[in-house]
Specification:
alpha+beta, ABC transporter ATPase like fold, two-stranded antiparallel ribbon, 33% helix, elongated
């Protein structure tokens, strides 16, 4: 049998040693940024030939890691522990990222949502404070609604969520808003108004209020 280590790109055994499981080789460029080229030994597949001969439901480890979250959710439907974690990633709108995608290639908003999905998959205490910085960055409006559903789910469990956000779809659903301004940078920093969305919408000094009011 095989140990889990054979399918890890972080330890010796199953990975390609030429690229140490990265799938790419770094080429140092003097006076220019380094470039990365596909490993000529594994052809970017990250594992050695023996490991790539092992298949699960007709798929190699490389093919599994190349699946999107949505594809993997269907593929592992019969494995409840995996399916549940993959479903939480889908719930926060990350259907399109790949299982083997490097964390360094994720945007700030995507990385936050991965952490959020991890929290969702745990048994919550209902006593956690979450702080999110613009989690809607790069999201389609349908994915924003998915994210809001997740945030409301965490709130309904008794948790507290602080969100730094400019997206009006998020702002209008908040229980309580603290609006800073009146401008950005050195022209801001003052609390103009705090309260429910309806209260904030009536503040004449707030730029947010002007755009928020028609949505309520």
């Amino acid at each position: 049998g095989c140990t889990p280590g054979r399918f890890s790109s972080n330890v010796r055994g199953g990975r390609c040693e030429a690229c140490q499981g990265d799938g790419v080789i770094k080429v140092e460029m003097h006076f220019l940024p380094d470039i990365y080229v596909p490993c000529d030994q594994c052809k970017g597949k990250r594992y050695n030939r023996e490991t790539l001969e092992i298949k699960y439901k007709g798929k190699t480890i490389h093919e599994v890691l190349d699946m999107t979250i949505e594809e993997a959710r269907e593929f592992f439907d019969a494995v409840p522990a995996l399916a549940r974690k993959l479903q939480t990633l889908m719930d926060v709108g990350l259907t399109y990222i790949r299982l083997g995608q490097s964390a360094t290639t994720l945007s700030g908003g995507e990385a936050q949502r991965v952490k959020l999905a991890r929290e969702l998959s745990k048994r919550g205490t209902g006593q956690t404070l979450y702080i999110l910085d613009e989690p809607t960055t790069g999201l389609h409006f349908a994915d924003i609604q998915q994210l809001l559903d997740v945030l409301h789910q965490l709130r309904d469990q008794g948790n507290t969520i602080v969100v730094i956000e400019h997206n009006l779809d998020v702002i209008k659903t908040a229980d309580w808003i603290v609006d800073l301004g009146p401008e950005g940078g050195s022209g801001g920093g003052e609390i103009l108004v705090s309260g429910t969305p309806e209260t904030v919408a009536e503040c004449e000094a707030s730029h947010t209020a002007r755009f928020l009011k028609p949505l309520l």
